[in-house]
Write a structure and sequence with these properties.
The chain is an alpha/beta fold. Helix content is 51%, strand content 10%. The chain contains 30 helices and 15 strands. The strands form four sheets. Strands 6-5-9-3-10-11-4-12 form an eight-stranded mixed beta sheet, sandwiched between helices. A three-stranded antiparallel beta sheet has the order 13-14-15. It has a two-stranded antiparallel sheet with strand order 1-2. A hairpin with a 2-residue loop joins strand 7 and strand 8. The termini are far apart. The relative contact order is 0.11.
Length: 726
Amino acid sequence: MILKNLWHKVYFFLKTILPEFLNKNFKVTSTKRSKTIGAVICVATLLPVVILVKQFTSLEFSAKWWILAFNLLCPFVLGIAAAFNVRIINDIANKIWHFVFLFLMPIVLMTMTEALNDVFVYDMTYLGFLGNYLVIIIMLFLFFALTGSFRVAYLVVTPVLFGFAVAHSYIMDFRGTPFLPMDFLSVTTAIGVANTYDYTPTYKVLSAAMIFIFIIIIAIKTKTPKYNLLTKITSRTFTGTFAAVLLLLFFGTSVFANLGVRPDFWNQTRGYRNYGFVFNFFCNTKYLYMSEPDNYNPGDIENIVDKQEEEDSDNRYRKPNIICIMNESLSDLSVLGNLETNEDYMPFMRSLTDNTIKGNLYVPVIGAGTSNTEFEFLTGHTTAFLPSGSNAYMLYVKNPIASLVSTVEAQGYSSFAFHPYYAAGWRRTEVYSNFGFNKFVSLEDIMDISLMYQYQESGNDADVLQSLVEQHYPGSNMILRQYVSDSYNYKKLIEDFENRDKSQPYFAFNVTMQNHGGYTTSCVNFNESIYATNVSKEYIKANKYLSLMKYSDDAFKELIEYFKKVKEPTIICMFGDHQPSVETGFIAEVMGVDSLSSLTPEQEQARHATPFYIWANYDIEEKTIDKLSSNYLSSLVLQTAGVKLTEYNKYLLKLAETLPVIDTVGYIDNQNIYYKWSDVSPYTELLDNYEKVQYNNIFDQQNVDAKTFYLNGFVPEATPISEEEK
């Protein structure tokens, strides 16, 4: 009887009260044109979901069915939203509703951006939810204050947030690290390798696109009510002032930073997951500007470095040929944990012992950001002191600067830079000019670049590129997948060495390309022979990457075998710039963790470790160095070579005795104690002094302490390497 009465009440409400309420308060209209548009939108949005249904069913979490149901339902909701126009009849209620909706819109937009961040809004922390809400409402308030139009505010802010969030989603999938403001400065480099990745829409993109289209439909239908003059002035003044005050407090003071409103510098990926995309991206914008260190005085640099006066004669120093190779994505993933493969992928490198110094190199980046490791190696500076997510090549190497190049050139060395990809990547042409390289050879110099254009027109088919190259350079084995192979790279390096000016000792710096990301590519010239054997499933990217490591190992063996026969004393240093961006599931499984967002300091540092080797074709002391960061490596190379060191090189080698690792994750002392940058430690003063010395060379060119960074009164000058020549 109770259920029967309840049913009658519900039926009466649905049959009588609700229709009367809707008819009294809302006006629903449509046209033949709007219904046609609605039908088209429904079909157009439903079709991709049906075609890519495996994107949803192949997911490995239970919510996949809810996500699929959402995406199947959305097209019909979008069709109805486009077909019908709903207006509140009561004028006062309509005016109030538009302001209410303005305050609700950030939640809808947040749902859209977090769908692309692979986070459910209800899983966010309270601070994350509030932070994202405030950033979005500030954006909406600014455009409403400027235009007085709700429609304009929605139509401007929504595409911007959607575009940025889509970029973040793909960048996370491709390189395993978040989209940071500094990535805008590397857009030309990104374009150069963009065609090597797979842009098939993911379930995240499809889900967010549904919300995006819904917001755009609603925004287009939104008509700002005609408010009286006082309401207009008050509302626009309030929203504009509110937004301006919050922005001034954030960028102009440390109020929010002291409250904890700042990026997770220790682990940006974890920060984006815990606190949301919009909030973290916005917070990172504050740290684009490089501020002067506290109590910085250029006159103190000499005392910090603590120069050792000694009587030096150039005759007491060796001048062997020095070849330094930064190998793209070279790493030994067994440093992460338990990794077993069907065969060893680095047998030659592991076997190197005679006249060899080798170990683990801790680099500042993971999966991408090659040039930051390159910057650390060539300058001896650490990017840990630069704004989080910044790129030194894109921002800071604007003038001639002290580096490994200036140190060897001051001792009569020639200098050769070689990178078998586009010269413009990471502004290398301009940067190498400011480093003072005598010569820079890039892809444009070793290949008919029109072949790359034909390859791109073919839809980036690696087999097409291989065929084109074979036609023009038969038997060269120039290309592996879609990049110049390590083997061919070393042949060109040897060719330059053989044609060198033998009246000068030879210095070369080579950045390889073979192992660059885009590990989904298969082609006829790539033998995928290595695979992991102790993981739960086949990881396509990881296995292709491991196979590439075997190719790198074979090529390095060829290089060493050649220089074993060279009579002139020669030192070769090779190191990896970062670990690859392969499946996060593979990384987590090898590390024995459920999620990469909750790693210990030791595990986080392990993700930044790559191998390094210093080999000589003459007797040097063999040793293994368990931990060393990339800012120290060039000084170690110079010390091993027996050439003259700058005072800065000596300072770095001494610093490495106490803090062998300083990187963007934190630092590790000689007692193997791991520190985060937020930790209180006994090394604060030591690190502060290092930052001041570094700042003097990079940012205070007018007051640079030349005796610290240069030898023999050497004056650095930019060399004439122009884009036109490239």
